[in-house]
Design goal:
254 residues; alpha/beta; Rossmann fold; 4-stranded antiparallel beta sheet; 8 helices; 28% strand; disordered N terminus; disordered C terminus
Length: 254
């Protein structure tokens, strides 16, 4: 099932994508589309290839075969997007599950985001982005003094500074408490609805997928299924994906 239509043209088009390490296929012949300005969840058991898929899309690892297009452009094509600068036309942001850094290193939040500014961008973009993620009042604090949830918001801000059209989140809420997790996903929803950013998130939490995702892509090295979460993720399908019965639980996001 494709999520692209006249209202939401295709942001990412994957055809026959295969990735292998030492001749072992980690992703095998995947084909799917992701509609622009949607939230798409990637789910599957550990070792299913979810992080590998994101890394392949971002060009961080080589692919054995297949093609990747962004907004109907080949991944290798370039286009002008920001003040005449020649940069990737789909221009992605990426928020990892964990971000390792020396907490004693004396760098402020504002200085940290300054490292992500593109050539020609005004530094005022930093304050605007921190305000967007609710971290403006913390701009002069040291990064090592922040809580886990605050660090994740700063990482989102870092990804947003360069004005991405697509935002990848690889279990980016990992380690955040339930209350903080709710506000984290509400922020993602806000960025998607208000700024039109296409969001692709990896999650093991099926209730999060139900509440926030427009579509879900189910992987276990191969494509298992793709569709609208509430229609697709039945107990039978979840058993097929994870190889065992899995119950839905809720964090009571209200």
């Amino acid at each position: 099932m494709s999520s692209s239509n006249k209202k939401n043209p295709t942001a990412i088009e994957i055809k026959n994508l295969t990735v292998a390490y030492d001749k072992e296929k980690i992703l095998d012949n995947l084909s799917f589309n992701i509609g622009a300005e949607t939230i798409t969840a990637l789910i599957g058991p550990n070792g299913a290839g979810k992080t590998t898929l994101i890394r392949a899309i971002l060009g961080l690892i080589p692919i054995q075969k297949g093609s990747i297009k962004f907004f109907n452009r080949d991944a290798l094509q370039k286009c002008n997007h920001l003040k005449g600068h020649h940069i990737d036309c789909f221009h992605p942001g990426y928020v990892p599950q964990r971000y390792s850094f020396d907490k004693t290193f004396p760098i402020t939040v504002r200085e940290f985001l300054g490292l992500a500014l593109l050539s020609g961008q005004d530094a005022s973009k930093i304050d605007k982005t921190l305000k967007e993620v609710g971290m403006l009042k913390n701009k002069d604090r040291l990064l090592g003094q922040l809580s886990g949830g605050q660090v994740q918001r700063v990482l989102i801000a870092k990804a947003l500074v360069a004005e991405p059209k697509i935002l990848f989140l690889d279990e980016a809420a990992f380690g955040i408490d339930i209350a903080g997790e709710k506000t984290f996903y509400e922020l993602i929803k806000h960025l998607n609805k208000k700024q039109g950013i296409t969001c692709i998130l990896v999650s093991h939490e099926i209730d999060v997928v139900f509440k926030y995702a427009d579509q879900v892509i189910c992987l276990n090295k191969k494509m298992i299924c793709q569709g609208v979460p509430k229609k697709l993720l039945t107990p039978k399908t979840l058993t097929e994906i994870y190889g065992k019965e899995i119950g839905l639980y809720e964090h009571k996001y209200k």
